[in-house]
Amino acid sequence: MRVIALAAALAMSVIPALAATHTQVIECPIGGSLWFRVRGGDVHITRATDPEHIMLRYTPDPKKPDEENKVRIRSYVHGSQIQLEIKAPVSLSVDAELEVPSPISLEVHMTGGDLTVEGVDGDKNLQLLAGDLKVDVGTLQKVGTAEVSVRVGDVDVPPSDRSADGWATLGGIKATASIDSTPTQALATLASSPSDS
Q1: 55, 62, 77, 113: most buried by Cβ count inside 10 Å?
Q2: Does residue 2 sit within a domain?
Q3: Residue 174: which residues within 8 A CB-CB, separation 6 or more?
């Protein structure tokens, strides 16, 4: 009987605890902008059903339960801009899901992890040091400017159509992607103009 109890205790100590997901709601002025920063973790940003609030759900790495209580959320309002930051120890990654009003001007800064933006209209400035960046086509249909920067990783901004001169038509706007590559950085900038077609 002791052997079974000991085996069960050992098995339970190997299984990581389920990560706790925390939720925070931030009031957002209509037509405002969001500046968001997180050091490490995957971030998924989607359109909210509530036009006046930003919903943040975040989950610290479940393999490091001792550090979960060291995560801090900082939010500030400067005029119509919301500044939101997830602060965590360097050794702790924090995954986040953001539901934001649309349209919203969005500026995101990440050190590492994957960033996905879906269904959010408005200008974009997405800066990622290492990881993959994916922005859906629908997100680019009502955008004035979008700038994305990834130093190590992939950028996936799929055009719906591409012409021979390098322009891509994205739902009624014409966008061009210019790539500036150096050994340490690839920078893609999308600038929209009225479609000729």
Answers
A1: 113
A2: no
A3: 167, 168, 192, 193, 194, 195, 196
CATH number at residue 106: 2.160.20
4 in a structural domain: no
**pLDDT, tens digit (0-9, with 9 covering 90-100), for 163-196:** 323 333 333 333 333 333 333 333 344 444 444 4
| CA-wise closest residue to 41 among 64, 24, 18 | 64
Q: Between 17 and 166, whose confidence is greater?
A: 17
Q: Are 188 and 135 in contact (CB under 8 A)?
A: no
Separation CA 94–CA 110 (nearest Å): 11
CA distance 16 to 52: 37
- How far is the C-alpha of 122 from the C-alpha of 31, rounded, in Å? 10
Q: How many domains does the chain have?
A: 1
98 contacts 36 by C-beta, under 8 angstroms: yes
Q: Does the pLDDT at position 109 exceed 50?
A: yes
Classify residue 11: in a domain, yes or no: no
3-state percent breakdown (helix, strand, coil) of the chain, nearest 5:
10, 50, 35
What is the band of 159 on the pLDDT scale with cuts at 50, 70, 90? Answer: low
In terms of residue numbers, what domain contains 186? 16-194
State residue 6 phi and psi, 5-degree precision: -65, -40
